[in-house]
Amino acid sequence: MNTILNPLYIAVSWVISTIHGLLSPIFGEASGVSWSVAIIGLVIIIRIILIPLFVKQIKSQRALTALQPHMKEIQKKYKDDRQKQSEEMMKLYKEHKTNPLASCFPILAQAPIFFALFTVLNAIGKNPPKGLGVLTDSDAKSAAQAEFFGAPISETFLGSSNGTVKLVTVLLIAFMSITTFTTQRQLMVKGMPKMDSSNNMMLQQQKIMLYLFPVIFAVSGVNFPIGVLIYWSTTNLWTWGQQYYVIKRNPTPGSPAFEELAKKRAAKNPKAVNENIEGATEGSVIEPEVKSQRQQPNKKKKKKK
Fold first, then answer.
1. Pick from 28, 42, 64, 76: CA 20 to 30 A from residue 4's CA?
2. What is the pLDDT confidence band of residue 172, given thresholds at 50, 70 and 90?
3. What is the model's pLDDT at position 290?
4. Tens-place pLDDT, residues 269-279
5. Is 204 helix (H, G, I), strand (E, B) or coil?
6. Do the Cβ atoms of 252 and 225 come closer than 8 Å?
7. Which residues contact 44 (CB under 8 A, 6 or more apart)?
8. In whole angstroms, what is the distance from residue 75 CA to residue 84 CA?
């Protein structure tokens, strides 16, 4: 199969084949553990590569938070001229080098990998199994026999009458949808400053993602091979953990998590309120109340007689 996506097929199949080759002597060549862990290993490698993009996403979200007052002014000033309002918004984004769609970057970056894995696993699920990328037909046959909790990793909910396949698929789809929802809700409840919900583009975008993505996963998941569901469930779990760490250790200034961290540090050491909260990014807007806490009256030194 010679297509423009051939390099992706080769890359994805090479990673899976390499990890599988390392695990085969331990678990067996046709073992579901070997092939499932190979897919999970692919996720870990991809997400490590995407860490710089995740950092860019966080910075962009915080920049948008700082720009909220300016965005409200533009919306108010050009409320009767949608085109002018959009032009001024784009100027504002360009001036501050941010993008309101940055929160979608990690998902968009993974889309080609996701499609390549989907195609490779679909080829494995054919009768007879077909190798794609660096996977030979023999490798494909071995992968087709591999099972995840009793369900072949190349099977789909709609393409199988096996009750085990349907049960495992439903559980993985439910896990995907729940982790997508909780990850987005975690960001909105803990990681974002409280904002006026009226005509707030950023907040509206976050709300759409909160409910839309879980529905997309739930509806489209019935067409995905179990191996793809393993991939997406693992990447969702990684996203949740990565975001949890950032919100807890490096919260956005003004967010509930930022205030909680400030209280904890102040409780441990009263002088902590005079120090910068760990994780406040360069250029972040610090609330006036926090600034006022940091300002200490200068003590006059007594003159020696």
1. 42
2. very high
3. 39
4. 766 445 554 54
5. helix
6. no
7. 234, 238
8. 10
User: Can you tell me the distance from the alpha carbon of 59 to that of 102, in angstroms, rounded to the nearest whole number?
Assistant: 9
Measured CA to CA, the distance from residue 233 to residue 86 in angstroms comes to 37
What the block records as the tokens of 5 is 């996506």
Phi, psi for 147 (deg, rounded to 5): -125, 145
Q: Does residue 294 register a pLDDT over 50? A: no
CA 108, CA 83: separation in Å to the nearest integer? 27
49: its two tokens? 């590569």
Does 305 score more than 70 pLDDT?
no
Helix H segments across 187-282?
201-220, 226-249, 256-268
Residues 6+ apart with CB under 8 A from 218: 173, 174, 176, 177
Written as one string, the DSSP assignment of 45-104 is HHHHHTHHHHHHHHHHHHHHHHTHHHHHHHHHHTTT-HHHHHHHHHHHHHHTT--TTGGG
Residue 159 token pair: 């393409």
- Note the Cα 98 to chain centre separation in Å: 18
The separation between the first and the last C-alpha atoms of the chain, rounded to the nearest angstrom, is 93
- Per-residue confidence (pLDDT) for residue 149, from 0 to 100: 93
pTM for the model: 0.74
Residues 6+ apart with CB under 8 A from 231: 39, 40, 42, 43, 114, 117
**Are residues 206 and 192 in contact, defined by beta-carbon separation less than 8 angstroms?**
yes
| Three-class secondary structure of residue 148 per DSSP | strand
